[in-house]
Design goal:
The chain has 396 residues and is α+β, with helices and mostly antiparallel strands. 56% of the residues lie in helices and 12% in strands. A hairpin with a 2-residue loop joins β8 and β9. Keywords: Bacterial flagellum, Cell projection, Cilium, Flagellum, Secreted.
């Protein structure tokens, strides 16, 4: 018997220490509901669990991104549907205007007045349809939606395309005029921006004598159609030549009206015995391709009623094709949302199996450890008392 070393006490102590540590871990799992509360609990499981958490978070955000995509497409489709309704009304009016047997110029002028108002509404819809301040129908919308938890999992969305918006210009309806059919001999030169080289102004040349009387005056009065420039439109036939006598008078009235309607920095028209030339402003230093496009003047003649029907049919077909594309992409978004929601559910279940505590099993473990702790404590107390028997020998 030894009083220096109490092996029984040491053994009981070490057993109680291991049991206490295991009980502490069991209680921590029950308190947090997590099987892995620190890396030491399960290093490999922790790594997998954190990866799954990142995947679940990314997919949950991707679902919301895809829902934003559906919202964008629904807004665009609603606006395009409204434009289709307008175009159908415009087509009815064009068919009506084509009835030359009973409609005179005054009647077709009244029809054209409504067509102009409907055309303005087309432009308004194209300019104001936006999502979070981003225009959807200007022909330049090209979005890339992140619809997955990882890089590269995207869906591209393009509305219109080709820098052709859904306004009258983009739909090739600027020359729509059912009153008569006019197409002046004209050649157009686009502006050159600083991004393309040395900036130069765009121009339109109308063939004819605009200097010598009486041909010049007759040619000025015969000017019909529209010029678009920098987002504005100038109707050549809207110039009031009342009081004009000489060729210079006619040219001045034309320039004054163009200056007012187009907001130029100076008179744009110049005349010669061979042609009438419209000159735009020179793009500024640092100008872009988009600037050059805006500053490139375009001439549109009058379509006439028969051609107007064909022009409107093409516009309807383009919008219908665009809506079909948007509908297909929307279906893709909705299938993606369904897939992601299922994937989030599956990944969450996988993460739960790794990370979460099996409460029933853990309660059983804790009960067992509680019993072992109590038994270990009793045995340690008993072992500590064993040395007391030596005192009996001394007392003898």
């Amino acid at each position: 018997m030894s009083v220096v070393t109490n092996l029984a006490s040491m053994t009981a102590y070490h057993s109680l220490q291991r049991t206490s540590s295991a009980l502490e871990q069991s209680q921590r799992r029950l308190a947090t509901g997590l099987r892995i509360t620190r890396a030491a609990d399960d290093a490999a499981g922790l790594g997998i669990s954190e990866g799954l958490k990142s995947q679940i978070g990314g997919m949950s955000r991707a679902v919301r991104n895809a829902q934003d995509g559906v919202s964008v497409l629904q807004i665009a489709d609603g606006a395009l549907g409204n434009q289709t309704t307008i175009l159908q009304r415009m087509r009815d009016l064009a068919v009506q205007a084509g009835n030359d047997a009973v409609l005179d110029l005054d009647a077709r002028t009244n029809v054209q007045a409504e067509l102009n108002q409907l055309g303005d509404q087309l432009d308004t819809i194209a300019a104001r349809t936006a999502f979070n301040g981003v225009n959807l129908l200007d022909g330049r919308y090209a979005g890339l939606f992140q619809v997955g938890a990882y890089s590269g999992q995207t869906i591209p969305v393009t509305i219109g395309g080709g820098a052709r918006g859904m306004d009258r210009k983009g739909l090739d309806l600027l020359g729509l005029d059912v009153r008569d059919s006019v197409q002046l001999p004209a050649s157009m030169t686009a502006a050159v921006s600083a991004a393309q080289g040395v900036p130069s102004a765009g121009r339109i040349s109308f063939t004819g004598d605009y200097v010598n009387s009486p041909a010049a005056e007759a040619n000025f009065r015969a000017l019909e159609g529209t010029i678009t420039y920098n987002g504005k439109t100038f109707d050549l036939g809207s110039v009031d030549y009342t009081g004009a006598v000489t060729q210079s008078d006619y040219l001045l009235k034309l320039n004054q009206k163009a200056l007012t309607d187009l907001g130029l920095t100076g008179y744009p028209f110049g005349a010669s015995p061979a042609q009438l030339v419209f000159n735009g402003d020179v793009p500024a230093a640092g100008s872009t391709l988009a600037d050059a496009d805006l500053l490139s003047p375009m001439y549109y003649g009058h379509s006439g009623a028969a051609q107007a029907i064909t022009m409107i049919d093409k516009a309807i077909a383009r919008i219908s094709s665009t809506r079909a594309d948007l509908g297909a992409v929307q279906n893709r978004f909705e299938h993606t949302i369904t897939r992601l929601q299922g994937a989030v559910e599956d990944a969450t279940a996988s993460e739960s199996r790794i990370q979460d505590t099996d409460m029933a099993a853990e309660f059983t473990t804790m009960s067992r450890l509680n019993v072992l702790t109590q038994a270990g404590t009793a045995m340690l107390a008993n072992a500590n008392q064993s040395s007391q028997s030596i005192l009996k020998l001394l007392a003898a």
